[in-house]
Write a structure and sequence with these properties.
By secondary structure, this protein is mostly helical. The protein is built from 14 helices and no strands. It has 2 domains: 45 residues; 222 residues, MetI-like (MetI-like fold, Orthogonal Bundle), CATH 1.10.3720. The model has no long low-confidence stretch (mean pLDDT 82).
Length: 291
């Protein structure tokens, strides 16, 4: 038994070491970006392996926040993320619940066509033509309504309902006189908090990080989300770095400004994730497995 425990402990040490190394590989880029954004630009060049800020300064953030378009971008992104996620979660829950019911007529045929979209889709041009025909071009709804449901999120939510909402519970509610809508609202939804948190995080992060649809469907700058403005700043700063000398003050400011832009983009997601973390793992595991 002692030999087995020694072998097991040795294997455990190797596993923990690999996990620690993997964690460092993932965490270090975040530490570097955050530290560089608060550091003196000259020190960033002199210390390419930053872990803590050197020559602490808020200059990059002052310059970033002094740009009025950043606040407009935050407002638009929050609007698109909240509105889009609310629509996504609502449609996904309703569709997944209906598809989880065995008595749904044509259930297998519907699922067949839904699963096909995992491998094939209509493409960018047909989608653009549909958005245009609906009169949604250059409107906020173009970023909120398009992609109202994601096939993967629909499938894991459907599986969650099948595993956690037994037919016996539905039969008991029916005997008590509960309608389908009443059962969904008062029984199914309260039991579905883990999967709701998971798909809300997936949809929310997708909306927050999206910029390509805005470039396609929007022309008015006052409708652009934050990511489009940050993309423009990064491109402008990259051009400044290419055209200037390292000793040039503009190049040094551009160097730390791009790190401040990255922090501004990821900070909201990092602030939200701890609040849904306790549901996240449970929801993913339950929703991704089927008995």
């Amino acid at each position: 038994m002692s030999r087995i425990s020694k072998k097991t402990s040795g294997v455990d040490i190797v596993i923990y070491a690999l996990l620690a190394l993997t964690a460092i590989l993932f965490i270090y880029p975040f530490l570097y970006i955050i530290s560089a954004s608060f550091s003196d630009p000259a020190q960033v060049i002199a210390n390419p392996m930053l872990i803590i800020p050197v020559g602490f300064t808020l200059g990059a953030y002052k310059l970033l926040l002094s740009t009025g378009t950043i606040w407009l971008g935050y407002y638009n992104s929050i609007l698109y993320t909240v509105g889009g996620t609310a629509l996504n979660v609502t449609v996904t829950l309703l569709a997944a619940y209906a598809l989880s019911r065995q008595e749904l007529t044509g259930r297998r045929v519907i699922m067949f066509f839904i699963v096909i979209t995992l491998f094939f889709n209509g493409g960018m041009i047909p989608t653009y033509l549909i958005v245009k025909s609906l009169g949604l071009l250059d409107t906020r709804l173009a970023l909120i309504v398009t992609g109202a449901v994601t096939t993967w999120n629909l499938l894991i939510t459907k599986t969650f309902f099948e595993m956690n909402i037994p037919q016996e519970l539905r039969d008991a509610a029916e005997v008590d006189g509960a309608s389908e809508l009443t059962f969904f609202r008062k029984v199914a939804l309260p039991l579905s908090k883990p999967i709701i948190a998971v798909i809300a995080l997936f949809y929310g992060s997708g909306h927050w990080n999206a910029y390509f649809n805005a470039l396609i469907y929007l022309r008015q700058r006052d409708l652009f989300p934050l990511q489009v403005y940050l993309r423009e700043i990064l491109i402008l700063d990259q051009n400044t770095e290419m055209m200037g000398d390292v000793s040039d003050g503009r190049v040094l400011v551009a160097l730390t400004l791009k790190f401040a832009v990255m922090v501004a983009a990821i900070a909201p997601l990092l602030l939200v994730f701890p609040f849904v973390q306790r549901f996240f793992v449970k929801g993913v595991l339950i929703g991704a497995l089927k008995e």
